[in-house]
Amino acid sequence: MAATALVVPLAANSQTLTTLHAFTESGDGSKPGALLSAEGKLFGTTSAGGTAGRGTVFEITAAGTEKVIHSFRRADGAVPYAGVMKHGPNLIGTTVLGGANPSAGPGCGSIFTISPQAGETVSYSFQGNGDGKLPESELIEVGDVLYGTTSLGGGNG
Asked: Is residue 15 part of a domain?
């Protein structure tokens, strides 16, 4: 089953849909999530596929050219359900699994940053105790602080 990214014109009487990219379920990813429009491009995540099968971050131009920006490997995160946010020149997002917590089986998730200069780095790896685990939501920025939620854990666990 292939997934596609669509462009839907905002005019109420328009019914024309344009497929910008059809994901192949391999190196470019599969199961795309939320999209972010920035710098005249669309940025998003796939929760599967990529070179290690653990999801990707991608960009698509208005002409439909798709490029994988990062393919997750598990130690840096896996299964990014939510979309990414723009923070200056960087993209920031979460992965539901993976991260640098080898004692937690498939990992408890991570917060990642993708910089044009440095590539992808893990900003935070969830440990699954008081800090929670399985972050499925997008991050938001209020002032200079990032907020997000985890599906499990936190408090007393």
From this structure: no
What is the chain's percent helix, strand, coil content, to nearest 5? 0, 45, 50
Question: Do the beta carbons of residue 126 and residue 132 sit within 8 Å?
Answer: yes
**Strands, E, within the chain: which ranges?**
4-7, 18-22, 30-38, 41-48, 56-61, 66-71, 85-87, 90-95, 110-115, 119-125, 140-142, 145-147
Number of H helices, E strands in the chain: 0, 12
Interval 45-62: pLDDT, tens: 999 999 998 999 999 998
Q: Which residues of the chain have pLDDT under 50?
A: 1, 157
d(CA 11, CA 156): 49
The residue range of the domain holding 87 is: 20-141
